[in-house]
Amino acid sequence: MTARARPQRGPVRRPFRIALLALLLLLVITIALWRITKLPCWQMVGEVTCRIETGEKIVALSFDDGPTPEGVDAVIDELAKRRVHATFFLIGSKMARYPELAKRLLAAGHELGNHSWSHKRMIGRSQAFYREEIARTDALLRAAGVAHPTLFRPPFGRRLAGLPLAVEQEGYRSITWDVADDAVHNITPETYARDIVSRARPGSIILIHPMYRGNRVERAAVPLVLDGLAAKGYRIVTVGELLKGEQPE
Ligand SMILES: [Zn+2]
Fold first, then answer.
1. What is the distance in A from the centroid of ligand 1 to the CA of 115?
2. Surrounding residues of ion ligand 1, Cβ less than 5 A
3. Helices (H) and strands (E) in the chain, counts
4. Which residues share a beta bridge with 204?
5. Secondary structure (3-state) at 147
């Protein structure tokens, strides 16, 4: 009798096991996809540039988010003092709030890129949503004086297939970074700058976040990063300038 009891339990437990396995598989796939969305140098669809191959001691400096008055004020003079031009990836809704800031950055010779309209996470949304995010900001960049905006940086660096597709269709190129300020907790501007400078290599695209009110360490570190890179013999350029030095594969 006990031998017959076992097979009876099988059909009850099997669906449960299958469901559990399916759930686990789904979880693993979700985690894998989520990690894939943040890979700086690889994406599912189209091309992404996180750095370039070059023998020259040259790096591009990029600033994300904003524009905000405190961010632009802090950075623009430090760059001017050293005659350095950088790339600012601006959020459309912030540009609409501070239209004069984009013009000020342009007048100072900096390059402006598109960082979406809302800075929402761009995963699992419609093509129409992605394209509108890009196009609305594109219109403001052109209104500010950028003749042909071509550089797009995904908010949080995250993208799967839909956003890169829209980026290409809107005539843009996806630009990420290979050196960024990942952990800015309880560190001094000096430590922050030393970390960035030590990780830069020829062809790097560096990302710094100076725009939000709380980003004091980042803002204070900007002159230190500029001087640190110069001391190591690096020439600092815009992303657009860096891309001109790209070697064909
Ligand atoms: Zn951002």
1. 7
2. 64-65, 155
3. 9, 9
4. 51
5. coil
CA 117 to chain centre: 14
Distance from C-alpha of 150 to C-alpha of 90, rounded to nearest angstrom = 13
Chain segment 57-71, per-residue pLDDT in tens: 999 999 999 999 999
Architecture of domain 48-244: Alpha-Beta Barrel (3.20)
Distance CA(147)–CA(73), nearest Å, equals 24
Ligand 1: centre distance to CA 155 (Å): 5
Q: Indicate the residue type of 98.
A: Y
Q: How far is the CA of 119 from the centre of ligand 1 (A)?
A: 6
Tens-place pLDDT, residues 96-143? 999 999 999 999 999 999 999 999 999 999 999 999 999 999 999 999
Asked if residues 104 and 82 have their Cβ atoms less than 8 Å apart, the reply is: no
**For 190-232, what is each residue's pLDDT tens digit?**
999 999 999 999 999 999 999 999 999 999 999 999 999 999 9
